[in-house]
Every structure is written in structure tokens, then in C-alpha cells.
Amino acid sequence: xxxxxxxxxxxxxxxxxxxxxxxxxxxxxxxxxxxxxxxxxxxxxxxxxxxxxxxxxxxxxxxxxxxxxxxxxxxxxxxxxxxxxxxxxxxxxxxxxxxxxxxxxxxxxxxxxxxxxxxxxxxxxxxxxxxxxxxxxxxxxxxxxxxxxxxxxxxxxxxxxxxxxxxxxxxxxxxxxxxxxxxxxxxxxxxxxxxxxxxxxxxxxxxxxxxxxxxxxxxxxxxxxxxxxxxxxxxxxxxxxxxxxxxxxxxxxxxxxxxxxxxxxxxxxxxxxxxxxxxxxxxxxxxxxxxxxxxxxxxxxxxxxxx
Length: 307
What we know:
This protein is an alpha+beta fold. The chain folds into 2 domains: 12-193, no CATH class; 210-305, Substrate Binding Domain Of Dnak, Chain:A, Domain 2, CATH 1.20.1270.180. It contains 7 helices and 6 strands. Strands 1, 2, 3, 4, 5 and 6 form a 6-stranded antiparallel β-sheet that branches.
């Protein structure tokens, strides 16, 4: 996974020697510094040109330069491979060594794991770098040529952009870390807010459910009070009617009356038990059944009285 888009640059850097004598060899301090500067500047140009999906620049140029300054880019194992007999140009081979501070190296590893990117070692290997702890090495070729007056030296490094890819990726990983952390913080904050909202909604639902249950219980109690009153009226009615019954008629109807009372109780218990399991509703069903049977019995008893 590449965190940066790559751009190609043709890089030739001039070193100005001033009044002192210029060392124009492959191993000169000037040449080594210029090769290092070429790689760093190629990385910088690529990074500061990065844009996001909205076309906005991703990285602040000052932060890019400050981060690059934390890394060590050295030129080791230098050899002069060729001297041009027709010019002062010298062709050189060396090892480019990029060293990353251990603390930054470890943070880069963690960040790349978090974003599920390939490891830095894997990325470096794909670019042709060999890794050793927090350092990465790659063979390079460059050429050095002084000006005729020996005051300036030109260094040309082919493939500088490719050599800078490793720096690009490391710096990009370092710079996106706070972006990722901010995104994580925002996500966690949003999740916390959502969880709080869900908890508040759940609490509200509990309160609403409790209020509904209380209202339903009040409604059931009101229904029970009403059927109780109706049942009392019905019982009072049948008792009064039975009291008006002549003794001879009472004796004649007593067994039937007792059988009716027993059947009424059984029928109403069965009806109530099959209607609901709620205790209040079951009592309402039982009393309503009792009232209905009693009213029907009153009408039958009235026939016996001739009223």
C-alpha cells in the first residue's frame, strides 16, 4: 500500500564551493551531501504535492521538511566506477543508507498496522532496499562533474524519485498519524454520543413502558371495580327476588337453585381461565360471567313468580 502518489523529477544539483578548493571526487563531502540532498528534496517535492480527494494539499510543507530532517540519509561504500577521458565527469557507485530513529520507526510500524498497510520492511523490499533493524540500504549510481573554474560541482542522480519512495512512505505515515488519531477520536466520540442517545432512548422507553403499564393497571382496576358493582347489583337482585318467593315455591326450586349455583361457579371459572392469564383480567372475566348468569337466572325466577 502506497500512501503517496509519485511524481517524476529530473534532479541535477549544483554545489557552490566559494573560495575554498573544491573536492570533485566521488567520495568528496560535497558529492555525498548533494546525493543525499537530491533524495531528500525529491521526497519533499512528492509529499508537498500530495492532494486528498477534494483536491486539497494533504501535508504542510514545513511539517514535511521538519519530519525529513529527523531522518539520516548517508552515502556509504563509495566507488569510482569510471572516469570519462573526454571530460572531468566521474561515475560513482555507492550504498544509500536511510536510517529512521527507533521511536519513529516503532510508531510507523504501529500506524501501518492500524491502517492495515503492508509493513515498512515489505514496502522497502518492494523498492529494492535491504533492511537492518531501523535502517534501509540500496545500491545507487551517480556522477560528479566540476565546472571549468573548479568553483562549482554538478551531481546527477538517476532515479532519484524511486530512491525517495521509501522516505515518502515513512514521512506520509508519520504525518497521517495525527489525522488517524483525530478520526479515531471523532469516531469514538460519535460512538459514545450514539451510545448515550441509545441509553437515553432506552431509559425513556422504560419510563414510557412503566407509565403505560400503570395506566393499563389503572384501567384494569377501573374495569374490575365496575364489574364488581354490576355483580353486587345482580346478586342483590336475585336475593331480593328469592326473598319474595313463596315458601312452597322455594322448596320446589331449592335443589335446582343449588345446582344452578354450582354450575355457574364451574362455568365461570373455566371461562375466566381460558380468557386470560392476567389476575385482574381473570377476576373481571369471572365476575362478568357470574353477573351474566345471575341476570339470566333472575329472568327465569321471574317466570316462576309470574312477574
